[in-house]
């Protein structure tokens, strides 16, 4: 919207016009009563005191007392209604500004210091309200009072009236000259006040950082600098205001002296009575207040105009979205299916494109992993889903309905977003969980808290979920705030749940449990996950990869594991998705060595890929025929990467043929090669990625250490849950398998050679990656 004009303000006054008329009427009655005492004083002096008439004195005093009592009653009545109008006008202004702020996009708030916004919402709005009600009402009643006072003075002595008004042009000239300076200095003061508010909001919110950095003195010095600037602004404005009020007053004092001189001469020449001169001067003194109000009206307007302009800057910000004129409803059995139709978005006409031609079809109840480098548009896509912005190209459909055709309240109730920063409000745990669903009962709040593991720390407090969390959750850790935000989203019971790095601040084990609970509870709901936790991205049905110039939705690449299996207790604890069946042998044996379980665990901790397990009987080594049959089965099931985590005995020709068949179908085979001892792994076969547990790889997740394209290694640390677990080479092979699956998921059209090249780029070319030293 464009910046509002004065007519915009009048609509806040219009609802109170009757009460304002009553205020104005009582003010006029009070003013009329105020005209009586000076005139009664004239009679009291001339007819009562000088005429020695007691009854006149008593009568005048009685009338003055009655006028004073009536004036006091009317003034109290007037103030009651005036305060009501004034407060309600301010409330309406704030509510309107808040409603507009609620329509502005996140980038507006990211670009504005919070202290500056608070100054505009509080101080500037109050300044506008004061001018709109206080000043204008005072000017209106003052004008009418001035007319009455001037009329009384004219009736008493036209000649003295001419002497009195000679000062008015000079007073107006002074005010006119000072007007631009008042406006400039008022704006500077408002901006400085906003800077100090921002300082305190920023510093108090980061007090732990200030203390840990030993920056207390530096922050006090910065505040002192702001205070010195504020003091200078205050002094300049006060001097200007003193001149604006003092010079007209001085000129008025000169006019009063001239009136006494002229009036005194007239009294001595019997052209004027003493009582008339006293009454005239009293009227003149009373006229000074309304006159100064009117003379200062331009200055008051300048101050209010500065504040109105600052408020208008916010109101001029266009709303990013709005409710549709003819809203549609979701189907009665909405499933949360999303369709992205060639979505494009930029933050402005001249801004760079953030999303371009993003297309995906997401069935209801699917789990979607959103991946991409920083700046690829992941958070922007989530903002589009929640309609903080609308796409600049294409459209987004929820169960076949364009998001722009759904009421905002409905859309945001059916799509819940849990963001990384997890904003919270002051109040209790229960208040924050219930925020998106105020009607939820205590049992539902408790269930959501249990699922998100909020109860684990809230119940340790004396009041449990009714304990207060401090402003913005100041008493909680980052992980606790995220779990509380997840509980709030669970209670909202949405069709679509969006997790934007929602478990980034919790440890991997806790993240795994929370995501497992969400996947179980929301198995029939659409889940969109942005995360660096592999557990959060596990079991995705669709992978939406965002890049600067391209976006594609794919199913995650499957990893095949040829081993003795993975024990069911671990599989249940880690929430693995393991498909498999016995191949080539009789009943599969248990994972007696813990080897398959540990390797599977490493793969699942580093990738979201579905794991296809082909079990072979593994006492010490499997036969090549069994491994070949397992490999053929995994390729048939669609695995793009196969981890050959096995030992071999006897002739390997049959396995060589199976490897060749897999490589011909663009499948990458990963096998470990012992650094010492006889080579029993198929490292020399075509298409097999060689992996070693070379000691030079200590500390590296994956390192490119060999002379050939496909020679990789990794640190033998993190051996898994089963005691000593597999050898370092097996760990390296598991990590390489997971890394290749991630690369192929992001770019499924890559050839095996290109995928290995990309992995080599990500790995260290000079042995293990080391932590950089910090300069001291």
TrEMBL record:
Subcellular location(s) per record: Cell membrane
SMART domains in the cross-refs: AAA (SM00382)
GO BP: proteolysis
InterPro entries cross-referenced by the UniProt entry: AAA+_ATPase (IPR003593), ABC1_TM_dom (IPR011527), ABC1_TM_sf (IPR036640), ABC_transporter-like_ATP-bd (IPR003439), ABC_transporter-like_CS (IPR017871), P-loop_NTPase (IPR027417), Peptidase_S8/S53_dom (IPR000209), Peptidase_S8/S53_dom_sf (IPR036852)
Membrane topology: Multi-pass membrane protein
Keywords: ATP-binding, Cell membrane, Hydrolase, Membrane, Nucleotide-binding, Protease, Serine protease, Transmembrane, Transmembrane helix, Transport
A GO MF term: ATP binding
Chain ranges of the ABC transporter domain: 338-573
GO cellular component, as recorded: plasma membrane
Catalytic residues (UniProt): 563 (charge relay system), 595 (charge relay system), 730 (charge relay system)
Major location (coarse): membrane
Taxonomic superkingdom: Bacteria
PROSITE patterns given in the database record: ABC_TM1F, ABC_TRANSPORTER_1, ABC_TRANSPORTER_2, SUBTILASE
Transmembrane segments: 53-77, 131-153, 159-178, 242-268
Cross-referenced Pfam families: ABC_membrane (PF00664), ABC_tran (PF00005), Peptidase_S8 (PF00082)
Domain ABC transmembrane type-1: 21-297
UniProt similarity note: Belongs to the peptidase S8 family.
Xref: PANTHER family: ATP-BINDING CASSETTE SUB-FAMILY B MEMBER 10, MITOCHONDRIAL (PTHR43394:SF1), ATP-DEPENDENT PERMEASE MDL1, MITOCHONDRIAL (PTHR43394)
Protein name: ABC transporter permease
